[in-house]
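Holo prediction. Input below; ligand is magnesium ion.
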Amino acid sequence: MPKLLPRVRNINSDHHSSIVMTTIANHNTADQQTQGSLQPVSVLKGVGSQLAERLAKLGLLTLQDLLFHLPHRYVDKTRISPIGSLNAFNTVLIEGEICGADVIYGRRRSLLCRVQDQSGSICLRFYHFSGAQKQALVNGTMIRCFGEVRPGASGLEIYHPEYQLLSGDQPQALEQTLTPTYFTTEGISQPRLRGLIAQAFTRLGDKALPDLLPQSEHTSLYERLQFLHFPPKEADIEALLAGEHPYQLGLITEELMAYQLSLLRLRLQRQRQQSFALPVENASKQPFIESLPFTLTRAQQRVSEEISHDLAQSTPMMRLLQGDVGAGKTLVAALAALQAVAADRQVALMAPTDILVEQHRNRFCHWFEPLGIGIAWLSGKQKGAERRQQLSAIAEGSAQVVIGTHALFQNNVSFDRLALVIIDEQHRFGVHQRLSLRNKGTLAIPHQLIMTATPIPRTLAMSAYADLDYSVIDELPAGRIPIETVIIGRQRRPKVIERIYHACKQGRQAYWVCTLIEQSETLSAEAAEDTAQQLQEQLPDLAIGLVHGRLKPSEKESIMAAFVAGDIQLLVATTVIEVGVDVANASLMVIENPERLGLAQLHQLRGRVGRGTVASHCVLLYGDNLSQQGRRRLNAMRETNDGFRIAEIDLELRGPGEVLGTRQTGEVSLKVADLQRDLHLMPSVQQQAKALLMDSPPLAEQLIQRWVGRDERFAQV
Ligand code: ADP
Ligand code: MG
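Structure of the complex:
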C-alpha cells in the first residue's frame, strides 16, 4: 500500500523554525549550544549556508541531529570475494583482471566486460556507457567492482557496478568499516554526509551525549552511535540490516518511548483544556433516525454513542473514527452534528476535495434542511458575492453546519460559536491544518472527530495516535452484495466496453477511471479527455460524462449532479473520485492501468461501487507489462473486499522493506524506529512511558526534546 498514514515532515518551513529555536533555547543550557551536541551544523568544516539549508531539508540542524541520523542500510566493502564463490543476489566486492570488453547488440545495446581472478570469471554489464568508458577497459588492467550479482545472459553478471581501475603496483586499501547508506537529499552525496557525521563525532567527544535511560550495555551512547554509523568489519551485518542489533534495539526503544511520552503529554494537556459540554439529547436525533430509509448498523449505533458521550464532556473530544469504505461514516458524523446543533452550536465538516464537499453538502441539505438547520459551504474556488454571503452566514451564526475544503482554515473565516469539527478522510490532511482549525473556536476548544477509511491495524493506530481516542465501524450495512473483481488484459478492452454498454442499457451506471503515472492534474485530465472521446465514439448512444481536477467547481458539480440523477450513464474520471463519492446505482467500475496505483487507493476507488442492492463489478484493466508482483497485488484485490485484509496483504507483498527505511509512522518522522516493524515493542514501551511520565517529568522532557522536540505536532501545542 502507499503510505498507511501520511508522513509529515516540514520541520524546515519558515513558520515554525522560530518555534523550533525557542523550544531548544528553553530547554537547554547555553553551554550545550556553544560547545555541546546542540551546536548548529554550520560549525563543521565545509558547511556553508547552502549545505546547511540542504541539511535542514533532512531535519539536520544540529550536531546531535547528525549523530542520530542513522544509516538505513549497510554494505560490506571490507573484503574481496573470490569470483568463483559468487552466488546470484550476493552484493559483493570483487577484484580481477579485465579480459575483454565488447559492445553487444542484443535487444538492447550493452557493454559487456569480462573480469577474472584465480577462482573464476564474471561479466559486468552496462546499458549506459560512453566511448571513453569502453576505451578505458583495457585487457589486462586490474579492476575492483562493487554491486549485486544477478543471473544474466552470459551467466552471472553485475549490472552497472561501481568500479575503480587499479593502476600501479600498490595494492589499493580496503574499507575498514562497513559502509553505511543514509537517507539523503539532492546535493548531498553519501560520502559527504558520512564525512560530516565523522566530523561531528570528533568535534563532540564522548561526554556530549549523556544516556538518559539506564542501559544494560557497558558502552556510552556516543560509542553505540559511533558503532552504528561505522560498524567494524566483524560486526553482524545481518542483524544490523534487520534492525535487530542490540544497539539499534536500545535506540529504537528509547525513541518509541519518547514518542509515546509526547503523545501522552498531549493527551494530558488536552484533558486540562476547556470545551463545550454538549448534552446528550435524543429529541432531534430520534426523529432523524426514523426518517432514514434504513436502520443504523450496530456498529454505527455503538460509535455514535461513544461520540455522543465524549461530546457531553467539558474537555475536548479527539476521536479517530475508522471504517471501511461504505461503512456509513457520514451518518455517524450527521448524528454528532445534530448534538451540537441541538445545543445551539456550530459544526464544521471538512473534506479533502471539492467533489466530496459537494456530496456532503447535498446529503446534509437533504437530511437537515427539513429540520430547519442552516447549512453553509466553502470551497477554494468560490468567489465574490457568493463567498461573502457564506462567510457572513458563518460569522453571524445563521449557518449551523458549515461544509468545506481546507478553505475552512483561511484566516478570513470566523465562526460564531464553533463547537465541533469533523474531518472526513483524514489521511489527506496534515496535522498542521488540523490544529489551525482547532483555533477557530473562540473561548473554548471545539471537539474533533477525525474520520478515515484508510485501514490501520488497531495496535498500530493505538501507537501512532496514542493521543486520540479510537472508534471503528467494523460492519457494513446489511444487504450489501460483495463487489466482484476481475482482472483483464488491455487486449480485451473491446469486450469490456461491450459489457459497459449492456450494463447501462439495463439502467445501471458505470465509472471508467483513468490513471497516470505522473501526478500531474493536467496530463491526467488530458488522458481522461481522450478516453472519454474514444468511448463516446464507440458507444454513441450512451450519455458519457467526464470529470477531472481541471474542471471548474461549477462544471464538476453539474456533472456529478447529472451522474447522481442518472442523466449520465458512464462517468469517465481521473482518480479525483477516489474518496467518498457515493452513487448507489453505479454498479460497474473499470480501472485502467490499476497496476499504477497502490492497493489502498484501488480499494478506495472500488468502494465507489457496491453501494446499492445489485451485484457490482470492478474490472481491473491492466496494461502490457504487468510484473509478477503487480499480478499478485491485483490478485489480492480480486480475493478480498476487506480493506484491513488488503492493507495487510500489501504489507506482506512489499516484503520486509528497507531496513530502518519504511518509517510509516504517520505524523511524526521517526529517526530509528519503524512503527510497523517495531510494533511488538509497543505494549511494554507504552507501559514504561506512563510510569516515567508520572515519576520523572524532567527526564520525560529530556527524552522528548532529544527525539521529537522539533516535530510540528508537538512544537505547536
Ligand atoms: P463511508 O463510510 O465510506 O463514508 P457513506 O457514509 O458514504 O460511507 O455511506 C455509504 C452509503 O451507505 C450511503 O449511501 C449511505 O446512505 C448508506 N448507509 C449508511 N448507513 C447505512 C445503513 N445503516 N444501512 C444502509 N445503508 C446505509
Ligand atoms: Mg465517506
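Confidence is low (pLDDT under 50) at residues 1-28, 428-435, 655-668, 712-717. That is the main takeaway for now.
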